[in-house]
Amino acid sequence: MKSINMRELLKAMEELEKEEGISQEYMKDALITALEAAYKENYGTEENVKIDIDKNGDIIVVAEKTIVEKVENEVKEISLEEAKKKKKTAKVGDVVKVIIVPKDFGRIAVQKGKQIIVQKLREKEKEVRFNEYQEKKGEIITGIVQKATEGKSVILDLGKLEGIMPVKEQVEKDKYAVNQKIRVYVQDIVKREKGDVQVIVSRRANDFLKRLFEYEIPEIDEGLIEVKSVSREPGVRSKVAVYSKNENIDPVGSCIGPKGLRIESIKKELRGEKIDVVEWSEDPAKLIAQALLPAEIMAIDINEETRFAQVIVADDQLTLAIGKKGQNVRLAVELTHWAIDIKGITEFKEMIEKGEKDTSIDMEKIEEEQEKLGEIEEVEETFEETETFEKEEEQEIEKTLEDIVTMEEEQNEEN
Fold first, then answer.
1. Is-contact 156 143, C-beta < 8 A?
2. Each residue of 350-361: pLDDT tens digit?
3. Which of 2, 3, 16, 30 is nearest to 108 (CA)?
4. d(CA 194, CA 134)
5. Residue pair 6/28 in contact by the 8 Å Cβ criterion
6. b or e along 358-372 (b: 16 or more beta carbons within 10 Å of the residue's beta carbon)?
7. Listed residue (81, 86, 44, 42) closest to 64, CA to CA
8. What is the pTM of this model?
9. pLDDT tens digits for range 54-66
């Protein structure tokens, strides 16, 4: 027996599946559960009711009853005689389905059904959004600032969801304005107690910088160059170590780009943050030397077991190697994952002489290099002096020639 028609509701479900990606089957199951709950709530019955909706949108209410010889509970039981009218092979102990048409259930069912459907729809939408943004975790997306108060989280409109950039994920010197478009890194997706989904984003994460390199530099996106390590002091300075298996590719030059255009594009996104691009090496000494650029390294003593590196630099390179407030060496440590100690050559020699330092560094070789460097400097100074002397001679000759020409012109005028 057919009763309540829900054709319009099924049509609405079909539209929702097309527009929102929520399956009709899911919503239909939710509706059936809602109708069964509504039936029991409004009729206070103990009947084991099952409800189904056929393809035409007709709701069929079925009560399951056990066949007995003598009926003691009309809600749950049915006599064998009545059961055989429905099914000739029925026997005691079997369960038969009895179609019922409850009075006024149509109005109640539609009202309750719509309420539950809306609730399930919202839950499903949240689940769909959660899954959608889970796939974006670790990616860079664009959001519009909705709320920005200094010292508090920045709230972003990400389209279908709200983005939260906590204070710890912000760069201190950055300022944000309402309706401003900004690019952010998707750090995490969080589902709250009521199923609400929040997207946690960052502009401070090292991976934000790594992703920017992947987006801006085609060779990285194509897998020809790999970003091996990143270290940052967000908003101030960062170091990025890159590597290529292809010997014909210059990984550092490719990242910097013609006239520095590629790296400038990334720096602009980071609002002027300085970026040192260095070449990665499996050789710890070479890697550490690269990581400490722009300082020039004289020698490095490596301890593989403790991952400790003793670095020696010329005295005039010590400040540059350490950096302002230790920034350069701090970034190098983070980039290489090695503990690094830097000493000027004079201090290091004194420590060895006093027996305060053991080293495998060939000090004689360093001294030879220093002597060569001194000779080169002397030659350069001599060359500069010679060049200056030659220029002075040329200037004197030119002046003499000018004087002779002037005298000749004066004599001609007198004649």
1. yes
2. 887 777 665 656
3. 3
4. 18
5. no
6. eeebeeeebeeeeee
7. 86
8. 0.66
9. 777 777 888 888 8
